[in-house]
Amino acid sequence: VKFVIPSPGLHLAINACAAAAVATLFGVSLAQVGISLSNFSPVQMRSELLVSRSGIKIVNDAYNANPISTRAAIDLLKDIACNVVQCKWRKWSM
Q: Which UniProt keywords apply (predicted)?
């Protein structure tokens, strides 16, 4: 079953795999797991991808930050793809 989680980050993919494993143990089909995880919506300010009017990409991960979530946000920032032809921006973390 192929599906896309509409939120970035390896940590969320790992959590989705764990949720899928538990769901199948309880008899939920993988197709239904895929549908459910595709509808995942994170809490506001948790790995929230925003784009400003001028096209600046912002990852807002400020909600209840702790060392583990901060590390995940930094890893996400490192992994954000940059089109080499259009890449004239810097990555900042606050």
A: ATP-binding, Ligase, Membrane, Nucleotide-binding, Transmembrane, Transmembrane helix
The tens digit of pLDDT for each residue in 42-88 reads: 788 877 778 889 887 777 877 777 888 788 777 777 776 554 445 55
Structure tokens at 66: 């702790």
Question: pTM value?
Answer: 0.62
The 3-state DSSP class for residue 51 equals strand
| Cα–Cα distance, 50 to 59 (Å, whole number) | 6
Q: Which two tokens stand for residue 12?
A: 């969320």
Residue 17: strand pairing partners: none
Domains annotated on the chain, with CATH: 1-41 (no CATH), 43-94 (3.90.190.20)
